[in-house]
Amino acid sequence: MRYLITGGAGFIGSHLADALVARGDSVLILDDLSTGKVENAADALASGRAELIEGSVCDEALVDDCLESTDACFHLASAVGVKLIVENSVESLEKSVRGSRIVTEGACRLGRRLLFASTSEIYGKNSSDALTEESDRVLGSPSIARWSYSIGKAFGESIALGYHREREADTVVVRLFNTVGPRQTGAYGMVLPTFVGQALRSEDLTVYGDGSQSRCFSHVHDTTRALIMLMDEEGARGTAFNVGRSDEITIHELAETVIERTGSRSGITTVPYEEAYGDGFEELGRRRPDTTALEQMTGWRATRGVEHAIDDVAAFERARIAADSLPTPNGEVVEFDDGPAVDPLVDA
Questions:
Q1: How far apart are CA 183 and CA 212, in angstroms?
Q2: How confident is the model over 87-104, as pLDDT tens digits?
Q3: Would you say 239 and 175 are in contact if contact means Cβ atoms under 8 Å apart?
Q4: FRET partner for 88 with CA separation of 20 to 30 A, picked from 161, 237, 281, 301?
């Protein structure tokens, strides 16, 4: 099979490309490189089974060309992280809506199977014990920039599932819950790589709020395995699935665990949210997935815990820090900076 991965030079997309190449498939990556990086896809490209095209999912002619040359599509292209979304909410929303419509329409018209990567942000402020795919959406005011991402992804889901109902399009929707692992950057507000980077530099880990908010973190290898299993499963057509681990950890506990596993001398500093994001951010208490539907459909089980993810991210960040600290040809030393630590919003 030859798969199109939109956003394939990003964190999750590049790991997905690696997994597909490893099982003998070929991959066409479409990425505008606004947040993705060519080096993320270096292993896949070096295999000879992957190709990268720099371009946007908002370019209808280009998307059609890519779909015509592939058998199926993983649509992962998306805005990344709370910082980017809060600061550029209009652009993030417009690109999400337009890109999802173009990719879904093209896949339907050309008869290509489409897996649309949505998000746990769909559920908004719903903090029920375990969120199923039928749980209610509880969103804050549209005046809060954070919710623009949820609105955009809800549009994408509605289009993908609506095309299945009305035009028999072969679509699957996945709702990703806080995926973490190597290659994820803290530059846009992702919490784990930021914590690890701070710990390795012996800086205090910055926890926004009081740290009692909890999340469930899924290793990227478990997430990509779920995506491939759902793409391969014919019974998944026209359905949405939660993808993530169900064991919770508070952000303060995550910071403590990162310090312990990295052997760092760092402390923990708490800072009010408004100091980082002003009026555009609204925090959630918890968000925990029920993955029964995914497990029953595919037999998928999460195999890697948060400790495994921390160790993998630490190994990756150590290599990054070492590389970024090398002198440049003019003798300057490049500083390593991944931005503020907050709760992760986006997994793609």
A1: 26
A2: 777 877 888 899 999 999
A3: no
A4: 161
